[in-house]
Amino acid sequence: MLLVLGAFFYVFSLVDGRLGDNVCSNLLDYATILVNNNCWYNPDIYASPESIIANHGYYLQTHTVTTEDGYILNMFRISKKPTFVAHRKVVFLHHGMAADSVQWITFGRRSIAFLLADLDYDVWMANARGTANSDRHVNKKLGSKNYWNFGFHEMGVYDLPASLEHVANITGQLGEIVYIGHSMGTTASYIYATEKAAHANKHIKGIISVAPIAFLSELKSPLFLMVPIIKPINTFLNTIGIYVVNNQKPAENLKPCLSFPLIGICLGFWYLIGGQSTEQSYEDVPIYFSNLPAPVTTKGLAHYSQILLKGGRFQKYDYGLDNFRIYGSFIPPVYDVTKITLPVHMFYGLADTLAVDTDVLTLFNNLRTRKKSMQVIPTNTSIKFSHFDFITSKHIAKHFIPYLQIKIQEILNT
Ligand SMILES: *[C@@H]1O[C@H](CO)[C@@H](O)[C@H](O)[C@H]1NC(C)=O
Ligand SMILES: *[C@@H]1O[C@H](CO)[C@@H](O)[C@H](O)[C@H]1NC(C)=O
């Protein structure tokens, strides 16, 4: 009898221990996740930024700023030591569309923010307006139409000035900050550096663009077929009172993508959006879909599609009949990147379907700043990075960080 009871509890404890497993090394293992030895528990999945950072032995400060137009944003700053030593060189990281600052910390020891903190940089991470950690406004309600009336233009013109001013104030590194953007984070930086040029020149020392997007003329992805219909869809959604594609916390959205069999299909979509990749492992897939997508406004999507439909003209938002009232011209003005005088260094990948190499080259050719460069990553071109590999690649420490560090130092030494 005792033996039976003992055996029962033994088996029960095994099963119980496995109930928490949430990642596996292969697709098929997910089918049997509860009893599979190739699966384990990753405590960072669905964890708060606070606990992810603590799980890996780093320290977090949260800084709150209010933009000129009333959006209340939280920035994260991490450190290897409990004290946040001033006078270190500051890197300011800005995430892409549908993402937030979690992208820089959620890949365990190989997360970019941790690797940069290990190199002794003072690491700051922005959370754009509307994301889970920056979802307040001084008087607009989160659910309201007014709240979601923004795109990446407003991030460049309002979020970045307020955020960078605060970083400069706290760190004493005015004019010494290195801006590192990924995807939409790069678009926002070009808008900041052209529309708020004096502010940018005063506050940051240079721009590093990872998978840069400005002169968006093509998508090497089947999504390209959707572009012509985004504008009518946007108009339609606005008519029925929808201004944001998804305003839930990421954790609520893609839960089915975390388990078999949908996990395989969801990864297929992921490749469809950002490009096929050989750099990703199945154990990371639940990480993507537990953190994505952050809210995406219809205005931001429509703005990118307008640029695409104009053959890559890097122009302001097209308000149609209201253009004349807003801009004094019938055609939206361009963001004049020829006026950027800060150093700009760009990294791009050969399997990237969004930041396509020809568009990166167009941006490079349009820049007139004296210090500029573009570099394919990885330097071993038999491996090709997708749009997301710059964040998610399992070889980030080898293929990307050393080159990133060289460019950070190059900017700091100019
Ligand atoms: C930064 O400091 C200046 C001067 O003390 C102050 O006017 C400004 O409001 C501060 N900005 C932020 C965002 O803290
Ligand atoms: C480049 O990558 C390929 C594919 O992983 C590998 O076989 C090759 O050895 C690498 N070349 C160098 C010079 O590292």
Automatic annotation (TrEMBL):
<protein>
    <recommendedName>
        <fullName>Lipase</fullName>
    </recommendedName>
</protein>
<keyword id="KW-0442">Lipid degradation</keyword>
<feature type="signal peptide">
    <location>
        <begin position="1"/>
        <end position="17"/>
    </location>
</feature>
<keyword id="KW-0443">Lipid metabolism</keyword>
<dbReference type="Pfam" id="PF04083">
    <property type="entry name" value="Abhydro_lipase"/>
</dbReference>
<dbReference type="InterPro" id="IPR025483">
    <property type="entry name" value="Lipase_euk"/>
</dbReference>
<keyword id="KW-0732">Signal</keyword>
<dbReference type="InterPro" id="IPR029058">
    <property type="entry name" value="AB_hydrolase_fold"/>
</dbReference>
<comment type="similarity">
    <text>Belongs to the AB hydrolase superfamily. Lipase family.</text>
</comment>
<feature type="domain" description="Partial AB-hydrolase lipase">
    <location>
        <begin position="51"/>
        <end position="106"/>
    </location>
</feature>
<keyword id="KW-0378">Hydrolase</keyword>
<dbReference type="InterPro" id="IPR006693">
    <property type="entry name" value="AB_hydrolase_lipase"/>
</dbReference>
